[in-house]
Amino acid sequence: MVLGLRILSRAVGELRPLLVHGPTRGFSASASEPLHVCVVGSGPAGFYTAEKMLKGHEGAQVDIIDRLPTPFGLVRSGVAPDHPETKIVVNQFSRVAANDRCSFFGNVTLGRDISLPELRKTYHVVVLAYGAESDRSLGIPGEDLKRIHSAREFVWWYNGHPDMCDLSPDFRNTESAVVLGQGNVALDVARILLRCKTELATTDISDYALDALRGSTIRKVYLVGRRGPVQAACTAKELREILGLKNVRVCIKEADLVTSPADEEEIRNSRIQRRVYELLSKAASAHKDNNYKDQKELHFVFFRRPTRFITSENGSKVGAVQLEKTALKGDEVTGKQVAVGTGKFEELKCGLVLKSIGYKSLPVQGLPFDKTRGVVPNLRGRVLSCESETATVETGLYVVGWLKRGPTGIVATNLHCAEETVEDLKNSPNSYTVSVIMVASILEDDKKGVLRPPSNSEKHGRPGLLEILEQKNVRFVPFSGWEKIDSKEKMAGQPRNKPREKITTWDGLLEAANV
Amino acid sequence: MLSRLSRAGIQALSRARPAGPRSISLSLASVLRAATPFAVLRSAAAWLSLRSGWQTLVTSRSNGVGAISSYMIHAGRNFFCSCTNATDGDNNNKLEAKISVTFVDKDGEEKLVKVPIGMSMLEAAHENDIELEGACEGSLACSTCHVIVTDVNYYNKMEDPVDEENDMLDLAFGLTETSRLGCQVIASPELDGIRLALPAATRNFAVDGYVAKPH
Questions:
Q1: What is the pLDDT of residues A442-454, one digit of tens each?
Q2: Which of A12, A25, A53, A373 has the lowest tally of Cβ within 10 angstroms?
Q3: Candidate ranges A50-59, A143-152, A281-290, B37-46; pick with highest mean pLDDT
Q4: pLDDT tens digit string along A246-293?
Q5: Does position A75 have pLDDT exceeding 60, yes or no?
Q6: What range does the record give for the signal peptide (chain B) (predicted)?
């Protein structure tokens, strides 16, 4: 492993000047010929990859395709409406799309409008950056009862994703909502449920979500985690924000804050965990003595895992969650503390459940896929034919972002995922592990002549894609089409004092894009 | 005292996070209000040095900060400074005072730049073609402008990061004990000669992006 590391750092040392300064003279005989790259997915992983490719290779021609008419992935459909600063990065991505050597093709779905083999015939390099559009499931009884949603669906709903505009969650028949999970997405959904509606009215939240929330009777939100406050997956900024919400009483049991030696060690080793734990401790004592009548309540429930969902009187809707008390035990293999059941059960009444236990990627025909981990098997970003030791590298096929690393990390995590070269590390749920070579791999492979061997038939790149899309009658949305959507949304938002009023249906988006 | 005055003003402005185009236009409005001739000239110079209209629009907030801080220094000199260290003669030759900052990139290559007092290191990097990302453009909503202050003495001269900056530093790749966000480090006379290193990927294999011993 150490030898591998040394070889790798030497390789990186060679590659860095390439990334920083671009190809120098004598780079390759084919430097003058275009390198046709297709990036599937226009979220942060896709755009950072496109940016680094354009910077790192003079001849790169990059096409970004996305199944939605709108670009930017989770920056548009995942980042909460009350976090506009996190969305500023779209300015940078827009500059990438405006590059002469880059083109955006919205409303093009991999698998339906163009197949993976077709893409690989058309481009020297195909980079899969389509993220994770499905959910992990709990696998417990009652999971298909009404009023149980995944956080991803709920977030897409209030962010106006055209696939979720008809979700119609019910906030009127209950005063309690249970959120399973304590990561940043869990905090987002809890905060949207509890935040004062006048504050939400000036964000880019979808109009139907704002209406539904205005009629909400939900007064108590429970954030339920399997483990303790030391292991909570959220980060300080989001925690600080939710603990400071107006008119919300925060309830944390003092008993849950007691730490074991193993907990103390975790706190010592991680700055993030330490600051999160400190925030939770402070919040527990600060709210203890205040009596908030009819105030909204935010409960942090630790050391509980859901074992079944119980129906309400009417029979098809959820009425309560059965929780089993857990204890922490050190896992010998990973060295982390895991939650194990103690056999003690309790019930938590609620009329709405949001599962925020993680996203999951979807496989695509012709793409090797690791069903257990929900990622594409890869070595330093190069897609492998399978997980076993006898796997071969699929020429010209790469993977980046959540599809490669698993669905954790922030916008900025994709920056390094796209750019840098480190050894493949095993992922742990909380880590911002930098996965491996993306663009560096691509540039290295091109230098070696792997991507453009003389025997290989010619790749046509953009004209080839256009031909296929025309044959199939696909109404693709160019970046200028997104700009039309963008300006219409902004104009519609102005009279309502919102930064934009999102167009939330497929037809509406395609019409606005004028395709 | 002068630098603290301008720093306080800038920190207050930095803390007022933008909420989209409205706040950018508010910043522009406040820039116009604060515009003195040399502040306008400096902003114009910054405008010309930017590559595209988009960049101009989105960095106008930080330009605004720079312009306001220059104004405050100017105001400070007129109203508060009765000391003889700084004379008007010092300023006659240049539009404003600058400090020397050395950026060290991931390969170890160094670039010495002159940074006007009141400008953030992120803005200075962009104006000098240094590859420092700034995804949220100075709003304390990301960690991509993470820089490492190579000399702990310079680190100690700066005021401690506020909670909001620490929250973002938590997530920074390759965090060290002398790490700061480039958008929060504002050029002031006592930082003259500072060296800022960009985090290097290959040195770090840490979980949670944290390498150095806990602090």
A1: 888 888 888 888 7
A2: A25
A3: A143-152
A4: 899 999 999 999 999 999 999 999 999 999 999 999 999 886 656 666
A5: yes
A6: none
d(CA A482, CA A470): 20
SS3 A514: coil
Q: Using the predicted structure, report yes or no on whether residue A117 has a pLDDT greater than 60.
A: yes
What the block records as the tokens of B55 is: 């960049």
Q: What are phi and psi of B102, to 5 degrees?
A: -105, 125
Write out the two tokens for A329: 């035990």
**B207 contacts A428? CB cut-off 8 A:** yes
Q: What is the pLDDT of residue A421?
A: 27
A85·B140 Cβ contact <8 A = yes
> What's the one-letter identity of residue A167?
L
**Whole-model pTM?**
0.80
Mean residue pLDDT across chain A: 89
Q: What is the DSSP string of chain B?
A: -HHHHHHHHHHHHHHS---SHHHHHHHHHHHHHH--HHHHHHHHHHHHHSSSHHHHHHHHHHHHHHHHHHHHHHHHHHHT---SSS-HHHHHSSSS-EEEEEEE-TTS-EEEEEEETT-BHHHHHHHTT-----TTSSSSS--TTEEEESSHHHHHHSPPPPHHHHHHHTT-TTB-TTEEEGGG-B--GGGTTEEEEPPPGGG---GGGB-SPP-
Q: How far is B164 from chain A (nearest CA, A)?
A: 7
Query: Which residues is B149 bridged to in the sheet?
Result: B196
**A270: distance to nearest CA of chain B, Å?**
7
How many whole angstroms separate alpha carbon A453 and alpha carbon A66? Answer: 29
Shortest Cα distance from B66 to chain A (angstroms)? 20
Mean pLDDT of A322-333: 94
- Residues in B 116-145 with any Cβ partner in A closer than 8 A: 131, 133, 135-137, 139-144
HSE-CB of A481 using CA atoms within 13 angstroms:
21
What integer is the mean pLDDT of B87-109? 75
Across the interface, whether the CB atoms of A499 and B20 are under 8 A apart is answered yes
Mean pLDDT, range A345-365, rounded to an integer? 96
Element (H, E) at A402: helix A402-405
Residues 15-44 of B with CB under 8 A from A: 17-22
- Determine whether the interchain pair A268/B214 forms a contact, defined as Cβ–Cβ distance below 8 Å: yes
Contact B167 A428 (CB under 8 A): no
Which tokens hold the place of B13?
A: 């402005």
